[in-house]
């Protein structure tokens, strides 16, 4: 029996090493990279780095000792950043007002925010401009922070100093803080537009785009999803400004130029390759004994693993696991990414292939637990959800870009064009295709002089420019209906 076990272990080790080496050398010859170190952003000088401005530097300045709470080394900076988003949160059990939903044509209700944010609010209805000024008066306390961020936004680079050596255990506290600041910035931008401070509104929108793009180089999927969420937040003031004809020709051109530099789809393959490489690093730590097998499981909220299995029993058992078993599991994970995940998006063609994402969610290799798919079942992402987020995020940027060009056309000609191609080349160099079907986005100039431009959306069906709602939440359902940018008739 002992001899048989040794023979089996030897065979698994030989097979695992051979098959993994063959797979890796074949794909490396085609330019693929599998080491996590290859995806870590290079350090940049502090005076050229947006992320090292004092307000943001404190978000990652911490000391972590196993078994002890995290100690923030710059509590003053962390407190300032937290306060900027905390102001929009529940106060005394009061319901937080809605922040607008441009995708379904909902403006921010500044009257509700006026009531929520000011202590002397009454039930007397005030003009929107008065409500906007009251909201801005509350936000004035954050003027130094926003001015600091705006100044840092002129720096050419943005690289947050993450503890990449910790792999899956590294903390990402800057994500929530940055998103919270972006939510406040969105509301301030809208209030500035309504109050007639158009240049200030533009500055806030450009800062919002800058903050979202600060995550562009981060090689984690969650960082990219937060980036996309922040881009969606920034679309609200752009949409409201277009809908109310607030933006001037010069301002629209600046917005259009900034939006044209946001290329979400280009970063999908890099992100997936980085996630794959992070998985490889974790498996290598397990294989070499630097991390216990019992530490595997779902990623916890603080960036670590939630332990699964039998604790000490699993630790003991892991000492006798053949090295080749890890390699064969690694092969399964890497092959799935190469064959199933990377083909989902073709940035060069500006396409997201919905049918392939559905197939990727039904991978036979992951249906049932097996000897060689343990890590793939743990580490393979929900690819359809990720691809849909990238598709929707890029579409929002594309629609905003087209909307700015349409508004510039209206300023020049007194009406919107009858068809999109009339924008080319004076108002837009090239109209981005719908990422879902590769065709031009659907466009219609309405009889009342407004317009609607839209993508057919994740269901790949032209629903006539109508989004679908999750009725119980009165929110957009991104999986059904069209992805729409509609200018309403405000007369």
Catalogue the unreliable spans: 298-317
**Count of all domains:** 2
Tell me the fraction of residues in β-strands, as a range.
5-15%
Give Rg in angstroms: 25 Å
Write out the strand line-up for the largest beta sheet, numbering strands in chain order: 5-6-9
Structural class: mainly alpha
How many alpha or pi helices? 16
- The gross shape turns out to be globular
Mean pLDDT: 89
Tell me the span between the first and last alpha carbons. 86 Å
Write down how many β-strands occur, each being a DSSP E stretch of 2 or more residues: 9
For the report, how would you describe the main beta sheet?
3 strands, antiparallel
Proportion of helical residues:
40-55%
What is the subunit arrangement here?
single chain
- Order of helical and strand elements: HHEEHHHHHHHHHHHEEHHHEEEEE
Sum this structure up briefly.
The chain is mainly alpha-helical. It contains 16 helices and nine strands.
Describe this structure in words.
This protein is mostly helical and 491 residues long. The protein folds into two domains: 12-41 and 247-413, no CATH class; 48-246, no CATH class. Helices cover 48% and strands 7% of the residues. It contains 16 helices and nine strands. The protein has helices spanning 2-28, 54-57, 75-86, 110-117, 128-139, 143-152, 173-194, 198-213, 221-243, 249-260, 268-287, 312-318, 323-341, 354-360, 374-379, 383-413; strands at residues 62-63, 71-72, 345-346, 351-352, 442-445, 451-455, 467-470, 475-481, 483-486. The strands form four sheets. It has a three-stranded antiparallel beta sheet with strand order 5-6-9, covered by helices on one side. Strands 1-2 form a two-stranded antiparallel ribbon. The longest helix is centred in the C-terminal third of the chain and has 31 residues, at 383-413. The protein is globular, with a radius of gyration of 25 Å. The N and C termini lie far apart (86 Å).
């Amino acid at each position: 029996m002992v001899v048989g076990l040794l023979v089996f272990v030897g065979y698994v080790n030989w097979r695992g090493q051979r098959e993994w080496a063959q797979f890796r050398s074949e794909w490396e010859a085609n330019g693929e990279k599998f080491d996590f170190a290859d995806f870590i952003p290079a350090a940049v000088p502090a005076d050229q780095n947006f992320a090292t401005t004092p307000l943001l530097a404190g978000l990652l300045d911490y000391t972590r000792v196993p078994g002890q709470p995290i100690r923030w080394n710059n509590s003053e900076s962390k407190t300032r950043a937290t306060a900027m988003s905390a102001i929009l949160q529940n106060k005394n059990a009061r319901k937080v007002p809605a922040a607008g939903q441009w995708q379904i044509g909902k403006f921010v209700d500044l009257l509700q925010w006026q009531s929520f944010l000011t202590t002397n609010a009454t039930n007397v209805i005030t003009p929107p401009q008065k409500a906007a000024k009251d909201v801005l008066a509350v936000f004035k306390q954050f003027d130094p922070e926003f001015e600091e961020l705006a100044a840092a936004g002129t720096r050419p680079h943005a690289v947050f100093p993450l503890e990449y050596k910790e792999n899956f255990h590294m903390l990402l506290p800057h994500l929530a803080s940055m998103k919270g600041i972006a939510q406040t910035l969105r509301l301030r931008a809208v209030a500035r537009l309504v109050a007639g401070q158009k240049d200030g509104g533009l500055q806030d929108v450009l800062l919002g785009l800058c903050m979202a793009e600060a995550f562009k180089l981060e090689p984690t999927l969650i960082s990219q999803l937060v980036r996309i969420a922040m881009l969606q937040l920034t679309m609200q003031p752009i949409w409201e400004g277009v809908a109310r004809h607030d933006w001037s020709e010069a301002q629209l051109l600046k917005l259009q130029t900034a939006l044209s530099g946001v290329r979400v789809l280009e970063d999908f393959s890099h992100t997936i390759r980085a996630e794959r490489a992070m998985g490889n690093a974790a498996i290598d730590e397990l294989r070499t004994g630097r991390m216990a097998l019992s530490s595997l499981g779902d990623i916890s909220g603080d960036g670590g693993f939630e332990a699964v299995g039998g604790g000490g029993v699993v630790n003991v058992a892991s000492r006798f696991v053949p090295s080749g078993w890890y390699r064969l599991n690694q092969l399964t994970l890497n092959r799935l990414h190469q064959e199933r995940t990377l083909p989902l998006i073709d940035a060069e063609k500006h396409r997201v292939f919905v049918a392939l994402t559905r197939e990727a969610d039904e991978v036979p290799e992951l249906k049932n637990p097996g000897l060689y798919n343990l890590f793939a079942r743990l580490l393979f992402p929900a690819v359809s959800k990720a691809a849909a987020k990238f598709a929707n995020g890029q579409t929002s940027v594309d629609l905003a870009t087209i909307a700015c060009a349409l508004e510039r056309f209206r300023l020049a000609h007194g009406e919107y064009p009858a068809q999109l191609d009339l924008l080319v080349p004076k108002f837009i160099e090239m109209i981005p295709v719908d990422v879902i079907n590769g065709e031009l986005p659907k466009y219609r100039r309405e009889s009342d002089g407004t317009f609607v431009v839209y993508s057919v959306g994740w269901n790949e069906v032209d629903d006539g420019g109508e989004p679908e709602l999750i009725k119980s939440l009165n929110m957009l359902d991104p999986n059904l209906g069209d992805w729409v940018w509609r200018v309403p008739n405000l007369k």
